[in-house]
Write a structure and sequence with these properties.
It is a single chain. This protein has 322 residues and is an alpha/beta fold. It has a five-stranded parallel β-sheet with strand order 2-1-3-4-5, sandwiched between helices. It has a five-stranded mixed β-sheet with strand order 8-7-6-10-9, sandwiched between helices. Helices cover 48% and strands 18% of the residues. It starts with a strand and ends with a helix. The protein has two domains: 3-139, 3-Layer(aba) Sandwich (Rossmann fold), CATH 3.40.50; 163-318, GAF domain (Beta-Lactamase, 2-Layer Sandwich), CATH 3.30.450.40. The longest helix is centred in the middle third of the chain and has 31 residues, at 141-171.
């Protein structure tokens, strides 16, 4: 028997929704506000969640974000049920990760169809496998609110980093200057020794040296960049194909001849619907790039790709004809 959690501060609406769902064979769990909704989902692991938007202590939008942000609850479908029906409300509901948006003037068949649809969609997304059922977690009110604070802090950090990269386009001129500015932003939030941006069309590869690095480490890194470009393009890219541009204003390259590359990380840069290049980082420290670094790079990838590619295209367009 599928279980649905309904969260709404109106006892009347909770009774109506509960009655409709139970007539169709659903088991129903009720919550009076957003905090209780989050607690109930972690405790019962329902098959679907219905959230009102305007609730005490925690809105349905924030509750949905919390649930979609945690691996234990991210796959549980969420239906936003609210009296708000402006385009902006629907947009914001989609941004929370909610799977459906219904207004409170719903008809019973519409609600049942929506719940069945999102549960079926979740089943299909799992490839027919049964839903994961983590052990029940009992969260206190303070623990729920602490998760809200952590989520807001992280979203503010992500928005700040993304905005800083995007703003480079307004403050910087020229391709190499743009790449240097993007890598400088990364250097403030990810610890790396060497970083590179390789543009796939012309193989121009901009390398910046952030910390003391040996020639051996640089050689290994450049070879790994060629391998990364090969993986991205699907065609062999040799080291000799790459056109290096090395920025080492502090003379850090070659000081230590003993160092070797211990960690390498690369990711494609996508802009305009295609892969235009790859971003690569290396360090002489083992396991230098943890989950935080990976999340930061995923965040930066799209705006960095657009800013860098636009600078390259502007340079090409502005170049004098021969």
């Amino acid at each position: 028997m599928p279980t649905v959690l309904i969260a709404d501060d109106s006892p009347t609406l909770r009774r109506i929704v509960t009655s409709v769902l139970e007539r169709e064979g659903f088991e129903v769990v009720s919550a009076e506000d957003g905090v209780e909704a989050v607690q109930g989902v972690f405790r019962t692991q329902p098959d679907a969640v219905i959230l009102d938007v305007q609730m005490p202590r925690l809105s349905g939008y924030v509750a949905a974000r919390l649930l979609k942000d945690d691996w234990q609850t991210a796959d549980i479908p969420v239906v936003i049920l609210t009296s708000l029906d402006a385009a902006s409300d629907r947009y914001w509901g989609a941004q929370t990760g909610a799977d459906r948006f219904l207004t409170k003037d719903f008809e019973a068949p519409e609600l049942i169809a929506a719940i069945q649809e999102v549960i079926r969609g979740a089943d299909e997304a799992r490839g027919g496998r049964p839903p994961m059922r983590p052990d029940a977690v009992e969260l206190t009110d303070d623990e729920v609110l602490a998760r809200v604070s952590e989520l807001l802090d992280r979203k503010l950090f992500e928005a700040s980093v993304s905005a800083e990269v995007t703003n480079i386009a307004a403050d910087v001129r020229g391709f190499e200057e743009t790449v240097a500015a993007v890598l400088a932003v990364l250097g403030r939030i990810v610890d790396y020794d060497l970083a590179a941006v390789c543009m796939l069309d012309d193989r121009l590869t901009y390398v910046t040296v952030a910390r003391e690095s040996s020639q051996s480490q640089y050689t290994e890194f450049f070879g790994a960049v060629a391998d990364a470009a090969t993986q991205v393009t699907g065609t062999p890219v040799m080291v000799s194909d790459l056109v290096p541009r090395v920025a080492d204003p502090n003379g850090l390259l070659g000081r230590d001849d003993e160092g070797r590359m211990a960690t390498f990380l690369s990711m494609p840069l996508r802009a305009g619907g295609r892969v235009v290049g790859c971003l690569a980082l290396s360090s002489a420290t083992k396991n230098a790039f943890g989950e935080t670094s990976l999340n930061t790079l995923r965040l930066v990838e799209q705006p960095a790709a657009v800013v860098i590619n636009n600078a390259r295209l502007a340079g090409v367009a502005g170049a004098p004809s021969s």
